[in-house]
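S1.2 Input.
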Amino acid sequence: MEKKMKILCLHGFRTSGSFLKKQISKWDPSIFAQFDLVFPDGLFPAGGKSEIEGIFPPPYFEWFQFDKDFTEYTNLEECISYLCDYITREGPFAGLLGFSQGATLSALLLGYQAQGKLLKEHPPFKLFVSVSGSKFRDPSICEVAYKDAIRVKSVHFIGEKDWLKLPSQELATAFDNPLIIRHPQGHTVPRLDEVSTGQMRNFTAEIIRESIEKKHELENGEVKVDSEEKKPEEMSKINNQEKSAMDINKRELEIAEAVQA
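S1.3 Output.
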């Protein structure tokens, strides 16, 4: 690829882009070697204690706020507007990657884009990596974002001990033909074993391959169009050349007949 495709990576609740970058660094670098990963911080400063205090230095951020049942949300519209502006300004992005709140938010953006609600001028996303994501529970959101199966290539990491195990499985069902990778850990970005690493390599390699093929198809299509556009001009040129040759042959024939006479 002439230019690496970008992936927007959204961190979890009350953490940071830097923390998610550290978490993903546990994975084999070959997985995303052909991509540029972008790790922005959440729109709002953490409004309470962070679970990574003492593990990773502040500051900490959150994308939006919610009630204990995860059915009512505060600042969600502001967050969506902010991310749409960011994606438009810093993109285009080939896909999204998210952990927990970041994965939940990413899936919402994908569903909304598929339904034509936002990012209408941005190219359709090609991929989604969800780690411990879930669906929103507000019916007014679900009826739009998850109305149809989201036709974006997706991989969903689901932890056996994750308190969001069932919601993560439910989110995966919102996507067309999702790849599900299970791991024995809890609510975290897991370390990948050899099998999972191979699955992720194949996943990203397929995205690269399809992008290259599409690029070649577009280039060949443009060449074909150009050829078609030039065809009448070239045919006229050939006809003129043939006419000139015939005129020359005719004159030579007339001269030969005159000499013989």
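S1.4 Remarks. Confidence is low (pLDDT under 50) at residues 223-232, 252-261.
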